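Response to reviewer comment R2.3. The reviewers asked that we include at least one raw input/output pair. We reproduce the pair for DUF4212 domain-containing protein here without editing.
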Amino acid sequence: MSERSDKAYWAANMRLIKISLVIWALVSFGFGILLRPLLSGISVGGTDLGFWFAQQGSILTFLVLIFFYAWRMNKLDREHGVDEL
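Raw output as returned:
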């Protein structure tokens, strides 16, 4: 890989990481803690939505983000020619 391609690869990688972290922080901290009072009127599974995000939603979101990151990084690796053969 050329230096230009290296920089593009790492820029795309860092952008993906930043987006994933923002989504996770929004779901776990934002919905589970900061917005919990606003979500308390919505019932999910016998409990309010804010509590559900704090207990289950952030974990499920994190798992989805792990699989999304792996899928997207494999695609990014192929695009930049650094995939595993």
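Residues 58 and 64 are 10 Å apart (CA to CA). The chain is about 80% helix and 5% strand. Further pairs are available on request from the corresponding author.
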